[in-house]
Amino acid sequence: MRYLAALPLALCLAAVIPIAAPPNALAQQGPAATGVPAGPGGADPMIFRAPPIDPTTFILSYNKMTGTMPDFRPVAEQSTAVRNASAFDKADVLTREIARLEGLFASFDPHRTYSLRLVTNIRQYDAARQGYPTGLDPEAFIPMQDPVNHRPFGLQFRNLDDISFLPMGDTGTARNFAQRHRLSTQYDIAGEALLELAYRLVEAPPAIGADRTIVRADILAARLITRNGQPIWEFGPTAAARSVPQPSQAPGTVPVLKAADVQGLRIGMPRAEAAGITSRDYPQRDPTERLGGSGRWFRGTQMQGVRVPMCGLDAGLTGNGTYSAAMAVLTGEGNGRAVVADESEACLGFDIGTPMKPADSVTRVTSGQRLAGHTPDAVRQALIGKYGTPTYTREGGKVLQWIGRDPTRPGSDPVAIVAQIEPRQGGGVVLAVEAAVYVDPRPRQAPTPTTPTAPRL
């Protein structure tokens, strides 16, 4: 599970400026939670005085966005009312306190406004773009933790692009800006600044690793200031500040993808139909016997004995011979890379079940292509055009990941699709795309018994 834990913290998150947390998360509701008033030339400075988010508020918001009910018993047991209750009244007081917390949770607004202050860098002047990049990494997250069970989370921003660049317009303006704020004109990092953010939580996308769950937020306003509070740059209200929060899916649901097939193959497809599609465009089949009719088909391959050329995502050693390479790359359990055998132009294949769970339909699809004359950016845009906005992007856009339901199979299990783009020396790319059944790694919520029941003996 190394993927999320290893994300580059380009926001200098270790240098978060501590701000006091509100004492009672459920009680912190009010006018500060709504709207983003704009002042002359930028956001109203009062928005940066919104309270910071504390771990309890963060977890309550996560549960609200995912449609799950938190376990309030540990919180209620620590309340003053329960701790001060007598042995005769403690059970009744605990019941009332849990009910009170559940009532507050029902009216809790997960999309209120919070503030955050980080240390960040202003990178060196970009003459081609005529401005200063901030170097903010969209893959970065802020570590968070459930205060009760210590489960790790990460806070990530969806619209960092809105504050990733300081446009100057011309070289003269940039030079004056550098002199005014004492920026370096030679080193890669021109200077350091404090980044103040006002944001609201928006969505909790499907998890891809049990080690950390991501919650995403929209930045509403941002500004750069010096350590003594002097203004450097005012980004003003973002587009998200002028709209109603729009999560990508309803609470507790998995989004529907634009498409969920890989070259016509999809999870759940009957074996005969899948074999017909692959053999039509890929005349060479690997000669080895595979479980239940699984196979790999190749184009431009010269078979050598029974040696099977590799195809698609090579997940490395996962400790599980039947583990999907797509899920291994998703969770970081394998050293995923795009693979097409040297003697092969392209490949396409599928698996039918596993040794422990036979099936009569496709459970995994894998593909690989050598694409001469294509750039990584062009291939990336083609993938986004087919599948939609990725659920996760990492390694600087080399790996794209989608989690959602097949639009052609309503009610089917969610699918995980991973695409890896490997630039080739001399031009072109190797593209590997794999699809597999998605399994949510997050712990399932146990049902809360409403009335005690006697054991059956």
Structure description:
The chain folds into 2 domains: 2-242, no CATH class; 271-437, no CATH class. It contains 9 helices and 20 strands. The chain has helices at residues 2-5, 55-66, 73-77, 80-84, 90-106, 171-180, 271-281, 325-331, 376-387; strands at 38-39, 42-43, 114-123, 131-133, 142-145, 152-157, 165-167, 189-203, 213-225, 231-237, 284-285, 295-299, 311-314, 337-340, 346-354, 357-371, 392-394, 399-404, 415-423, 429-437. An 8-stranded antiparallel β-sheet has the order 11-12-15-16-20-19-18-17, with helices on both faces.
Question: Can you give me a brief rundown of this structure?
Answer:
With 457 residues, the chain is of the alpha+beta class. Helices cover 18% and strands 29% of the residues.
List the helices and strands and how they pair.
Blueprint: H1 2-5, E1 38-39, E2 42-43, H2 55-66, H3 73-77, H4 80-84, H5 90-106, E3 114-123, E4 131-133, E5 142-145, E6 152-157, E7 165-167, H6 171-180, E8 189-203, E9 213-225, E10 231-237, H7 271-281, E11 284-285, E12 295-299, E13 311-314, H8 325-331, E14 337-340, E15 346-354, E16 357-371, H9 376-387, E17 392-394, E18 399-404, E19 415-423, E20 429-437
Parallel strand pairs: 6-9
Antiparallel strand pairs: 1-2, 3-8, 4-7, 5-6, 8-9, 9-10, 11-12, 12-15, 13-14, 15-16, 16-20, 17-18, 18-19, 19-20
The tally of strands reads 20
Level of helix content? 10-25%
Flag low-confidence runs.
Answer: 1-40, 315-336
- The shape, in one word, is flat
Give the strand order of the largest sheet, numbering strands 1, 2, ... along the chain: 11-12-15-16-20-19-18-17
- Please tally the helical runs, counting DSSP H or I stretches of 4 or more residues: 9
Give the SSE string: HEEHHHHEEEEEHEEEHEEEHEEEHEEEE
Q: What's the structural domain tally?
A: 2
Mean of pLDDT: 76
**Major sheet details:** 8 strands, antiparallel
Helix-and-strand structural type: alpha+beta
